[in-house]
Amino acid sequence: MKRVLSALVLLTLVLSVACTKREKRSVTMWSFAANNVEEWKKRKADIDQKFNIDLQIELVAQNAFVQKLQAVMMDGKGVPDMIEWMIENNRILNADPEKSFVLPLDEFVNDSKAFKNVVPGRVAWVKYGEHTYGLPHDVHPVVLIYNDTLWKKAGVDVEKIETWDQFFEESKKLTAAKKGGKSVNYALPSGNGGLGDTMFMIWQQTGSNILAKDGKPSFTSPEFKEYVAKWLEWQKTGAFTMWDWGNFSALLKNGTLCSYTSPDWWVSQVDAAAKDGKFQFKARALPAYKAGGPVTASWGGSFLAIPKGTQDAERIYEIMEYMQYDASAIKVRFEETGMLPPFSSVWDDEIFKKEDARFGGLKLGELQANLAKKMPSVNTGDIFWDALGDFGQQYTELASGKISLDDALKNAQEAAEKRIKK
Amino acid sequence: MSVRKKIAGTLLYRFGFRDAKLTVFEWLGIGFLCFIALIYLYPLIWMCDSSFRPMFEIFNVPPALFQKPIWQSVQSYSVSSYVSAFTTHNVGLAFFMSIFVTCAGIALTLLVCSLCAYGFVYMDFPGRKILFMVILGTMMLPMATMIAPAYRVISKLGLVNNPLGIILPYAMSAFGVFLLRQFYIRIPFSIVESARVDGAGHLKIWWNIILPLSRPALAALAIVQFRVIWNDFLMPMIVLRSEHFFTLPIRILLIDSINYNKPYDVIITAGFITALVPMIVFLIFQRHFIEGLTGGVKE
Amino acid sequence: MADSVAQKKKHKHNKNYWREAFSGYSLIAPFMLLLLIFSFYTFAYGFYQSFRSSQGLNPGDFIGLANYKEVLSSPTFWKAVKNTFVFTGGCLITQIPVAFVLAVILNSLPLKRVQSALRAAFFLPVLINTVVIALLFRMIFNPDQGIINWILGLLHLPNSYNFLMDSRLTMPLLIIVSFWQWTGFHMVYFVSQLQTIDPTLYESAKIDGAGRVKTLLRITVPMMRPALTFVVVTSAIGGLQLFDLVFMLFPNATYGPGGAGMTMIAHIYDQGFSSHRLGYAAAVGWVVFFIIFIFSLIQLKAFGFGSNDE
Fold first, then answer.
1. Which tens digits make up the pLDDT trace of B251-294?
2. Of C46, C109, C195, which has the smallest distance from its Cβ to B149's Cβ?
3. Which residues are A186's β-sheet partners?
4. How many CB atoms within 10 Å of residue A399?
5. What is the ipTM of this complex?
6. Smallest CA–CA separation between A26 and chain B, in Å?
7. Do B41 and C196 touch (CB under 8 A)?
8. Global pTM?
9. Phi and psi of C287, rounded to 5°?
10. Residue A242 contacts C, CB cutoff 8 Å
């Protein structure tokens, strides 16, 4: 009798454990950013416990992300519950929810208290048409970091510069010294491939859009033309140098590159140079395009989204929001990686007011937070990144002088318009 | 003979130049070729050198290697990037995974392709010519573009996140069948015929006679497949989900995706390791490889 | 062997024949099974898709030959075709003669050790991953930190040229990188084939008093015809399928400045994964296959491979 009883008790125990285990849902997440994944992994125990899930994080290489997602979604099995993908050039969002790879999150974000605090300029990047498709991870305000020592040596006080035109005029003094026919010091990096890196960041300040509000391309608008013309003029001053991901911090360290427009995640490039102690670096808001205009921009970033076909989107959204916007976690994120959260409410916290030794005690976090509040918005849309590519193709011909500015813009416009017809 | 001539003679002997009777012209020619070879290999030398340097020196211009005399610049070598690669970035695990997948893939390829080539060469069945043409035709199909359907097949077979899912497709190498077939044709049929007359079954003939005879061709195929499998990235990235299954090329691209403080020195080092292994394999099996391409059989 | 099989074919279709046929089928079965599963299904699906207006995850509707019509009238596609053929032609012209000459020189070197060392040296770049190669060459051609520009500086020539951003140079650059990557491969193949040439031919030529050049032209080249054919055909097929290098050398899917590096396969990839037009991409894929197929047939006819068949 006793044995039967104990067997029954055991059975009940086992069954109850099995049942609770079954409640623990496995949530799969794909991410392309190895450094974000480190944060998720550190917080996994906490997240698991709070939502009673088992968070599985899978790393997917950037070059294969869209292909893999597409292949898996078309197959239907093993689709991740959540993805973390880059905001720029993501190629999976679409104003038409039918065509998008991920679910529109409108119903959730409208009810969300946390989301209301996300800077609108940032939301613009994940909002196509009328739908918001993701939770931005960051806000990435851009500051101008510069090598004060070398600039002052050339006789320029960068702090006093107000507009980009001034900046490039003054940069001539910086690049005057030459060795072997090439300048020794350069003012800004540029990949010179079209609207990318520095050109992309400054463009955001101009207020000229490449897509009109209705999503149609507007390359031939007078404002955009003015900007491109100015940009080409600035190229002629010799202020720019080519750069590659690999040698960037080396360029800063040896003084070849004397300033750069930096989003928060790029600030660390100056670490080695600052540690060296040879030069004094400073940071400030960007010079304005036109006096009184925006003094910041954004570059890069990631967002969390829910691929189509997920069963309990609401639950996944809760988890996503917690991962992305939990107040204490964001502070840790800023402390460890220097990445500003997209939340205006948090920015008054003390940790953003710390003095940064790299920049002579400047309160970088405060500067970035203030700038983020004034982040300019950009019209995005379905063909935005393709249109950018179309412009890029024309730009290289334009930059080498093979075609005229009007022709380049016209070609880009036509190429982009063709995409809409499709 | 003077001492100098003796030493020179000994040196020449040790390096296999004993019987060399070369004109000055020929020596110059060899020297020139070696010089060209060194320039040709410069990127490799640069990679090897960079893997031992800290990140800042890698992209120096002029290259750090030339900035100081060799014996000085070598002094600043350090293995920190190797240590970092193997500990923080799991390159070691990826290395073993790559070795495993490559060896399994090669073994399977050799097996399947030699069986198939045997069938096409020594046996007759309706549609033989057409089927062979079809196989050749598959060499021209652009594989990289059919990712979604290819994935679906693997998924239906339940091989997602399973190394078999990437190993099996490697075995269907049309090039392999083609290469082996060209080799088998040159094996004198009398050997096979006499075995048949003695009553041997086809599988026995294949295993005991053809396979050993075609060793050079198998070696050649093995090296070609090594290169293909070792460097393959796209399908493994899509089929494999768990990090511990990732092969070296995938791992390199993942390290490359660290935008915050991208460890370029680790990337170069991992790239160097990835490039080094096929090179070592080739150097070891060089002779067999050449023989295999020759396609000749000495009776 | 060919004869005996041919004889058998004509005369007996009895039980023995079918038994042997069955064995034959079972031997090629593993390979054909893999081919069927991994290759045929994939391409049959692609073929099916090419008649639909697939976009992203939507299978789309049946639209008949509309995709194919669009491909054939698309200027981007034809530009890609032109780029690809220019590239392939450039590769063939640069790689094959150089590989051949190198092979002849190496083969005539009296020192075996040196010969295999040099052989290995030129072959090594073949084995490197395209990702790594793209990395290496991006750094080599960098305007300010690249070694090419540094050398130009030493020679007092203009030295901050941005090679990778000049659309006129994109194809030449790709050809150069491809040259570095593949010449060794062809050279090694040629060396191995050169060694199969009967040395007595050379001896009798020497006795007849033929000079080096004449020997080369009259004996070596004709004997190497099948090898040359093989290399030309396989390199052409490989060249027409160029994609990895362009994709890796020009980041962010730009395929070269102004799309100068857009090859046929790159176009397929671009349509399939950037624009998500899978049906259209599949159609392009089949047109590309067709082009490669026809081109290979032409080459084989021109070089007379048919006589070597069987």
1. 888 887 776 677 888 888 888 888 888 888 888 888 777 776 66
2. C46
3. A257
4. 20
5. 0.78
6. 15
7. no
8. 0.82
9. -65, -40
10. yes
